[in-house]
């Protein structure tokens, strides 16, 4: 008769202690990583971008730093997310690393979770949010789902994700924290600036935050000088037709080429 599998002590949500078999199946030889966080971004830069539209920010950071469609504030009343990324890489369907990340929160932190689109279990709920909110957690961006969203909205706390579900997943695999992750099709580094609202999410790489702030201020100054007209409209106006003519475009009454 073979020996029983080694066990470890685990605790469920109600505080009951039980044995959990260890390492059923394959055990990865690659250990989990906890990276070093570079610290908060200059609050003056965060304030300068706080009310800038997602569209304008996307224009400045480009396509590679603009989230793919589908990410949204999980309640319409939630405020904008803006703050310094604390990144989390979770095995799909296991939210243990999110709880570990909550213990590392500092003022202005946005927890950004790579969960590979998991929406059949939640990252966490309202009860788990209270301690990190008291420590200064500014928001959540999750490539997956969350729960207790009405309670979070009542706290004025923003969560951006793909959906909601009441089911809370098992907590067994440690995942990784403060490592480069992929969320919304964007590589997010620890310490990047993350901004999101009902229009979408953008990431401002940490090394370029000051440059983006300067570019936004210059854009606003040009718009003010133009009497508030959109810079894009002023640039594009008439350009299409000049190109059309330069390419020998034909204007015909019946839509047929001649």
- Helix/strand class: alpha/beta
Largest sheet: 9 strands, mixed
Instruction: Measure the end-to-end span.
Output: 88 Å
Order of helices and strands: EEHHEEHEHEHEEEEEEEHHH
Low-pLDDT runs of 5+ residues are 3-7
Number of helices: 8
> Outline, from the CA principal axes?
elongated
Q: Could you tell me the number of beta strands?
A: 13
CATH overall fold name of the domain at 30-206: Glucose Oxidase, domain 1
Query: Briefly, what CATH class of the domain at 30-206?
Result: Alpha Beta
Strand content: 25-35%
Indicate the radius of gyration in whole angstroms. 23 Å
Provide an overview of this structure:
The chain has helices at 43-49, 54-61, 96-102, 126-134, 149-154, 209-225, 231-236, 239-246; strands at residues 7-11, 17-21, 72-73, 81-89, 109-122, 139-146, 159-161, 163-164, 176-177, 181-183, 186-188, 193-197, 200-204. By secondary structure, it is α/β, with parallel strands linked by helices. It has a domain at 30-206: Ribonuclease E inhibitor RraA/RraA-like (Glucose Oxidase, domain 1). The strands form 3 sheets. Strands 3, 4, 5, 6, 7, 8, 9, 12 and 13 form a 9-stranded mixed sheet that branches. It has a two-stranded antiparallel sheet with strand order 1-2. It has a two-stranded antiparallel ribbon with strand order 10-11. 33% of the residues are buried.
């Amino acid at each position: 008769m073979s020996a029983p599998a080694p066990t470890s002590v685990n605790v469920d949500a109600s505080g009951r202690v039980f044995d959990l078999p260890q390492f059923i199946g394959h055990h990865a030889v690659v250990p989990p990583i906890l990276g070093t966080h570079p610290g908060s971004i200059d609050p003056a830069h965060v304030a300068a971008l706080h009310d800038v539209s997602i569209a304008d920010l996307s224009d400045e950071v480009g396509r590679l730093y603009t989230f793919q469609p589908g990410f949204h504030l999980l309640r319409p009343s939630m405020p904008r997310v803006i703050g310094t990324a604390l990144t989390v890489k979770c095995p799909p369907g296991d939210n243990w690393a999110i709880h570990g990340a909550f213990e590392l929160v500092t003022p202005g932190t946005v927890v950004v979770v790579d969960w590979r689109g998991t929406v059949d279990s939640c990252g966490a709920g309202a009860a788990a949010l209270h301690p990190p909110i008291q420590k200064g957690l500014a928001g959540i961006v999750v490539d997956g789902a969350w729960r207790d969203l009405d309670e979070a909205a009542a706290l004025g706390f923003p969560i951006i994700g793909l959906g909601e579900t009441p089911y809370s997943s098992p907590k067994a695999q440690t995942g990784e924290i403060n490592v480069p992750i992929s969320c919304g099709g964007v590589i997010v580094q620890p310490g990047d600036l993350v901004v999101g609202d009902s229009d979408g999410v953008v990431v401002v790489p940490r090394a370029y935050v000051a440059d983006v702030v300067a570019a936004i201020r210059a854009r606003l100054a040009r718009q003010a000088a133009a009497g508030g007209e959109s810079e894009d409209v002023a640039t594009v106006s008439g350009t299409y037709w000049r190109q059309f003519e330069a390419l020998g475009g034909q204007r015909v009454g019946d839509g047929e080429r001649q």
